[in-house]
């Protein structure tokens, strides 16, 4: 018996059917928004990640040298790959480029609740628009996908911020402030003790007084955003505040405003974000970590050797999303379903096979005996796969030109002429025939 | 600009939409047959493949040592993984176990037409039945999936054989014959020169006269299978021939017989096959290699430490299947489709957004301006995404309570009251409204 690899999971049919239903919803919503599916490779050159995130990233990668001497890594995220793909065909692609895909990614990190070394995400991105309408479309997509899953505004909350509000405020303090380090500190704020957090801000160059003032600014309510503009007195903060408002206005037109809360301490850890950023949280707080996040990354395409091209995206991950859906009671039932089991007694295979083919041809999920089992064993199996209706094709019945249609919930059954089954019905049940 | 990894592909939306349509067909057919989707990891312990296939397999693997010191490999095929999963829950799973999944696999091998280092397969397997009905269900699934794709009996052919017919015939020759080596030679027969092929048979222990006789036996037509039984005089060949006939009879009941041809030189290279084996070929021969194959592997579960459990499966691969579909003219069109583009002129976003939401809510694929572009640029974009209908939401029209609905194929357009759009229609077109 062989072991699974730690942090990698097997999904058996019951659990998989729930995951598939959720993935289908995430994807069908993306399709309705006009996002187009792309297919992407599992391996990329390791240097792509090192260039983007620094050499420390290698510790988190499943990276190795392939048989041809290439340094490659199993993709830890999609964004660099789609950026590479956009750059490769930047001229010929019609803009904006709106892409989605669902697939696994791999990171060598601590396994914990809702976090595995192999994890699935649906990535949804728009390349080629710097307009607030693009940020809003990404927010609206995410909100629509979650409400399609059955979640409501009571369940989730998009905490929305703008990197340049944070950056601009930090830049307005006296002294040498390391903006990147300070933003990373803000990003970890909720997870840290106050002392640790202030220690990180101090490392980033903020005095105790400045740190306290900065914290106060982060609490600024939405109606008072002009206070931040006044405090900073910089064009950077002014245009960031304007952009943030425009994005929220556009989200309002698309019905997504009600899910958004201003939250200036939402920073997103990744260095490549440049504008509006947001994270989805469980409104009840029961799921304590961010469920997923997204935002604007206008510099990445140019950084990958393309012409400058703005971009914004979001990437719901299935594992944390399942925690939220389970908390809210909307995770799909983890069970297989079957429309028909066609039960064979005696040598009735030709007729049973005809019935099976007719029912499958109408789009039904149909199983029949492939193991030469007894009546009892077949009925037990039909029950184990949650068959709704069992069609019993028995030798004696057939001699009279009949089959028996049995409703598995009530146990009711009726004989019907085999000639007229399934007849005109797409999906005949006991109730249709009795 | 970064390079792709050799043998790995990017799929842009046009090509991806065709691939997705084909995968959907392969999967929907499997669902109708009552196969259940499973989710499987991308990494397994390398030893699992070495134990099964010998240490030479490592040369074909993307294998490495992970950060935790585990020897792991990117899965080169699914069968060992599903065998591991069956063994892990063998008691509790209801039998037969009928599973499918579509996903990429990875092998470091020569890149050629229809063969890449990253390749997609839909694996379909039945565990827990040794009955011919199970082999037949797998054949019928494969035939149904291909005909659903638009292929006909003129296009493809399942060459069906039985490992024990070959094995039993070889065993009936005088002298020491290495059955495995001889079967591998047969498997390569079509690709080799006659001399090379006979050389391999000689290496396997067959004299020239025996090799010639063996070749003659492989040509035995279906009606004369009893001649093989008589020649071998062994129970092994007799029961293999009986089993082969029973599988073909069962396939006949399921409508798959017409796609099957007896072909005793179809051996399937993999050592783990034990009974009926088959390969799908292009009937015209234009696609020269086997498109995909399948068969029975009754010993694998026990070899993986489980209770003995028979199994049979098939695994259509997307790349060779695309060659066949393209040859037959049934590969789906590689283009994106769009139901509506909602064009905004002036400050009409709130109304345009309402129209967009209504149309998306009815399940349509809808794009709108997210880049603040001109009328002309928007219309050009709508054309580039093959929008069927453009809904023009202009300031002047709106002042009169109207929007314009334009059919993009004919160019015809009509004004309709914005209040009644989209109205009762799920998917209103120019023709509905004019």
Summary, kept brief:
The structure is a homodimer. Chain A is α+β, with helices and mostly antiparallel strands and about 425 residues long. Chain A is built from 16 helices and 16 strands.
Number of strands of chain A: 16
> CA-to-CA gap between the ends of chain A?
50 Å
Q: Give me the oligomer status.
A: homodimer
What is the strand content of chain A? Answer: 15-25%
- The geometry of chain A reads as elongated
Account of the protein in words:
- Two copies of one chain form a homodimer.
- Chain A has helices spanning 13-32, 46-53, 79-88, 132-148, 163-171, 179-187, 194-203, 208-218, 225-232, 235-253, 300-303, 318-328, 349-361, 375-384, 395-399, 430-433; strands at residues 36-37, 43-45, 62-65, 71-74, 97-106, 118-127, 156-162, 260-262, 276-282, 292-296, 311-314, 338-345, 366-368, 387-394, 402-407, 413-417.
- By secondary structure, chain A is α+β, with helices and mostly antiparallel strands.
- Chain A has two domains: 13-40 and 75-328, Bira Bifunctional Protein, Domain 2 (BirA Bifunctional Protein, domain 2); 338-433, 3-Layer(aba) Sandwich (Rossmann fold).
- In chain A, strand 12, helix 13 and strand 13 (366-368) form a beta-alpha-beta unit.
- In chain A, helix 5 packs across helix 6 (179-187), helix 5 (163-171) packs antiparallel against helix 10 (235-253) and helix 9 packs antiparallel against helix 10.
- Chains A and B meet through helix 1, strand 1, strand 2, strand 3 and helix 3 of A and helix 1, strand 1, strand 2, strand 3 and helix 3 of B.
């Amino acid at each position: 018996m062989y072991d699974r690899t730690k942090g990698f999971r097997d999904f058996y049919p019951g659990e998989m059917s729930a995951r598939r239903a959720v993935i289908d919803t995430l994807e069908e919503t993306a399709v309705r928004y006009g996002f187009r599916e792309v297919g992407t490779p599992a391996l990329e050159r390791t240097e792509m990640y090192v260039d983007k995130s620094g050499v420390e990233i290698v510790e988190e990668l499943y990276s190795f040298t392939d048989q041809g001497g290439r340094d490659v890594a199993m993709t830890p995220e999609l964004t660099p790959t789609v950026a590479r793909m956009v750059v490769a065909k930047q001229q010929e692609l019609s803009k904006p480029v709106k892409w989605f895909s669902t697939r696994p990614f791999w990171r060598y990190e601590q396994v914990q609740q809702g976090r595995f070394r192999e994890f699935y995400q649906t990535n949804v991105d728009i390349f080629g628009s710097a307009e607030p309408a693009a940020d809003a479309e990404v927010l609206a997509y995410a909100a629509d996908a979650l409400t399609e899953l059955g979640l409501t505004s009571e369940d989730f909350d998009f905490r929305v911020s703008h990197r340049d509000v944070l950056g601009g405020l930090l830049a307005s303090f006296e002294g040498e402030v390391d903006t990147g380090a300070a933003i990373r500190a803000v990003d970890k704020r909720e997870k840290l003790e106050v002392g640790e957090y202030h220690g990180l801000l101090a490392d980033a160059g903020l005095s105790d007084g400045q740190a306290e003032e900065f914290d106060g600014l982060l609490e600024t309510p939405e109606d008072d955003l002009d206070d931040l503009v006044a405090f900073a007195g910089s064009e950077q903060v002014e245009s960031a505040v304007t952009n943030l408002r425009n994005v929220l206005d556009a989200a309002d037109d698309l019905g997504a405003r009600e899910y958004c809360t201003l939250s200036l301490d939402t920073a997103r850890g990744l260095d490549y974000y440049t504008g509006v950023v947001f994270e989805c949280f469980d409104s009840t707080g029961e799921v304590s970590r961010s469920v997923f996040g997204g935002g604007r990354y206008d510099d990445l395409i140019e950084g990958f050797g393309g012409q400058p091209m703005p971009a914004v995206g979001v990437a719901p991950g299935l594992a944390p999303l399942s925690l939220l859906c389970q908390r809210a009671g909307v995770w799909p039932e983890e069970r297989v379903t079957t429309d028909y089991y066609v039960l064979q007694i005696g040598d009735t295979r030709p007729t049973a096979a005809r019935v099976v083919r007719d029912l499958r041809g109408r789009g039904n999920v149909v199983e029949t005996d492939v193991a030469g089992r007894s009546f009892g064993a077949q009925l037990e199996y039909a029950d184990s796969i949650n068959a709704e209706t069992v069609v019993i094709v028995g030798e004696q019945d057939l001699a009279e030109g009949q089959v028996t249609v049995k409703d598995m919930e009530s146990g009711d059954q009726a004989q019907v002429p085999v000639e007229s089954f399934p007849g005109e019905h797409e999906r005949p049940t006991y109730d249709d025939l009795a």
